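Thread: "does anyone have the structure for this chain?"

Original post by V.I.:
We have the sequence but no experimental structure in hand. Need at least a predicted one for the grant figures.
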Amino acid sequence: MSDSLQQVRAEVLACRRCPRLVEHRERVAREKKREFRSEEYWGKPVPGFGDPNARLVVVGLAPGAHGSNRTGRMFTGDRSAAFLVRAFHATGFANQPTSVRRGDGLEYHDLYLTAGVRCVPPDNRPNPAERSNCAPFLERELRLLPEARAILALGGFAWEATREVVPVVYGGTRTSVPFSHGACAVIGPGAPLLWGSYHPSPQNTNTGKLSFPMLVTLLERIRASFSDAPSARRHP
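Reply from O.Q.:
Generated one for you, tokens below.
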């Protein structure tokens, strides 16, 4: 049977594999944050979003409690989203610098945005079993993005989630390159390069661990690498 990004999306939306995450995402959606009391929260798994012909695939950690878990779109409606999407816009990957809600006109060009875990976790800490449960979704998305030339992992958790699935999709071996901002790992012949960036969480951006110029510079480096990258090859 053929697969599609639409089918992956439908299966993500129906997923209830992780009882802890199901309970948490639904409780957050019921209790809400004071400033969003009048809004209806999404409270479900959040599917990937972006250009199906993307050369850059960006992998985050998981939906934010009052961002994606509220709005239903990856990196939408919170401070992490505001920082990240402004950088995407500055480097030509987004048509606007804001990501506020579904239907706000945001489009990604040459970029597909997804995550290692699709439900908001308590304290932003998914456990290894939850990451494993979500891994097949990421694996299928990568198989369905044939133009991918680079994968950018936002944070150490996303780096680990990604490096576990890329050898299955593209062949090669699981990289031993440690995570760091600007890290670049070669997975295998014809496979996309795996890049690392600090996560755009307020904890990192407010302290200067990740600055806007740092992220823009990294995205520009990644775009420049496309001209030298061969077509990605899938592992049978």
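V.I.: this helps a lot. The mean pLDDT is 94.
O.Q.: and Residues 165 and 220 are 25 Å apart (CA to CA).
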